[in-house]
C-alpha cells in the first residue's frame, strides 16, 4: 500500500488525508505554544517556559550529530544533577509551568543518561500528578523504561530513524534500523504513551528513511505522531532543505496510514522562504496541530473554515 501511495499525486493524497482528518477529528486545528521561545499571535499573551525543556547533560552530547553537534541542547535549561533538576522544576512550577520535557545529549549507544534523575521525576509526579513530564529517551533499555513507567511519566518521545546510513553518517551511531522498531515495541509492551518523531530530510536533506520509519511507527501503533523537518544548526551548506511538496506528501501519507491518530507538525523546521508553504501543506495534509505557526498559517486555517485553538503545551500532549 505504501508504494502505491508514494506514486499517487499530492493533490489526490491531500484530498483523502483532509477527508480522513475531518471524519475523525472534525474542524478543530490546534496551535501549540509551549513557551520555549517568545511568541505572540497579536492578540494573546503567552508566558515563557509554560512547558520548558531541561537537558540532564547540559550542552554535552557524545554523538556530535552532523546536523546539530549539541547546539540544540544549548537552548534547554541545564540540570546536570538531580538536586539542580529538582530545584529547576520547583522554580518552573512556582512560575506557572504546566510541565517539562526531560532531554539531554546521548551516549555512544544512542541513550540519554537518565538513571540518576528517575527518583526526582518520581518525587515530582508524586507531589503533583497533574504536572506533565515527557521524556526524550533516545534508544533505551527495558529496565530504565520500566522505571520511568513506575515513576509516572506521561509520555516518551523518540526519534525514529529508518535508514542505516543515516544512523551511521548523521548520528555517528553503530546501531540498526531494527533497534528503533524493537525499542518502540518494547516501550509499547511496557505501557508507555508514545510520541515518535519522524524527521523529514534526516539524511542531509534527502528523503531516505522516512518511509521505513513511518512503516515502523504505523505497525507498532502509537498515541500520536510528530513530524519535524530537518533544521541543521551547524554546517548548513552540507544540507538541502526538503521542499513543501516532499513534506506535504509525507504528512498526507502519514494521515492516510493512521486515519485516527493525532498527527503534529512539531517545533523544529527550517527558517526558510518556503516555511509558510510547508505549514499550509501540513494543514491540507490533515495534521491536527502545528507548533509555533506563522501568522499566514493561522490566517489560512481560518480562511478554509477550520476552528483554531491555541494551547500552551507541548504539541505531543494535545488531545
If you had to describe this structure to a student in words, what would you say it looks like?
- This protein has 319 residues and is an alpha/beta fold.
- The protein has a single domain, classed as TIM Barrel.
- 37% of the residues lie in helices and 16% in strands.
- β5 (132-136), α5 (142-151) and β6 (155-159) form a beta-alpha-beta unit.
- α4 runs parallel beside α5 and α5 (142-151) packs parallel to α7 (177-190).
- It is globular, with a radius of gyration of 19 Å.
- The model has no long low-confidence stretch (mean pLDDT 93).
Output the CATH topology.
TIM Barrel
CA radius of gyration:
19 Å
Count of DSSP H/I helices = 11
The CATH H-level homologous superfamily:
Aldolase class I
Tally of separate domains = 1
The rough form would be described as: globular
The order of strands across the largest sheet is 3-2-4-5-6-7-8-9-10-1-11
Secondary-structure element pattern, one letter each: HHEEEHEHEHEHHEHEHEHEHE
How many angstroms separate the termini?
28 Å
Report the mean per-residue pLDDT as an integer: 93
CATH second-level architecture: Alpha-Beta Barrel
Low-confidence stretches are none
- CATH C-level class: Alpha Beta
Q: Give the % helix.
A: 25-40%
Strand content: 15-25%
Tell me the structural class. Answer: alpha/beta
- Largest sheet at a glance? 11 strands, parallel
Amino acid at each position: 500500500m505504501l508504494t502505491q501511495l508514494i506514486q499517487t499525486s499530492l493533490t489526490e493524497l491531500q484530498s483523502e488525508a483532509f477527508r480522513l482528518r475531518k471524519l475523525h477529528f472534525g474542524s478543530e486545528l490546534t496551535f501549540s505554544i509551549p513557551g520555549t521561545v517568545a511568541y505572540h499571535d497579536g492578540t494573546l499573551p503567552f508566558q515563557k517556559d509554560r512547558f520548558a525543556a531541561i537537558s540532564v547533560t547540559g550542552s554535552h552530547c557524545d554523538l556530535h550529530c552532523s546536523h546539530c553537534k549539541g547546539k540544540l541542547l544549548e537552548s534547554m535549561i541545564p540540570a546536570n544533577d538531580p538536586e539542580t533538576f529538582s530545584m529547576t522544576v520547583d522554580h518552573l512550577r512556582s512560575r506557572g509551568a504546566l510541565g517539562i520535557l526531560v532531554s539531554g545529549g546521548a551516549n555512544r549507544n544512542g541513550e540519554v543518561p537518565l538513571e540518576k534523575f528517575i527518583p526526582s521525576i518520581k518525587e515530582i509526579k508524586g507531589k503533583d500528578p497533574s504536572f506533565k513530564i515527557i521524556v526524550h529517551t533516545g534508544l533505551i533499555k527495558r529496565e530504565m523504561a520500566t522505571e520511568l513507567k513506575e515513576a509516572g511519566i506521561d509520555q516518551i518521545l523518540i526519534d525514529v530513524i529508518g535508514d542505516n546510513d543515516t544512523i551511521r553518517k548523521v548520528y555517528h551511531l553503530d546501531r540498526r534500523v531494527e533497534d528503533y522498531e524493537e525499542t518502540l515495541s518494547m516501550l509499547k509492551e511496557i505501557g508507555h504513551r508514545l510520541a515518535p518523531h519522524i524527521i523529514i530530510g534526516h539524511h542531509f536533506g534527502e528523503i531516505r528513511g522516512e518511509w521505513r520509519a513511518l512503516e515502523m511507527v504505523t505497525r507498532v501503533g502509537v498515541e500520536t505522531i510528530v513530524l519535524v523537518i530537518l533544521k541543521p544548526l551547524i554546517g548548513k551548506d552540507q544540507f538541502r532543505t526538503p521542499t513543501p511538496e516532499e513534506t506535504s506528501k509525507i504528512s498526507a501519507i502519514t494521515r492516510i496510514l493512521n486515519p485516527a491518530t493525532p498527527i503534529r507538525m512539531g517545533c523544529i523546521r527550517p527558517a526558510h522562504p518556503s516555511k509558510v508553504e510547508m505549514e499550509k501543506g501540513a494543514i491540507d495534509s490533515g495534521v491536527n496541530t502545528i507548533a509555533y505557526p506563522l501568522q499566514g498559517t493561522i490566517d489560512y486555517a481560518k480562511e478554509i473554515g477550520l476552528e483554531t485553538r491555541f494551547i500552551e503545551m507541548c504539541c505531543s500532549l494535545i488531545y
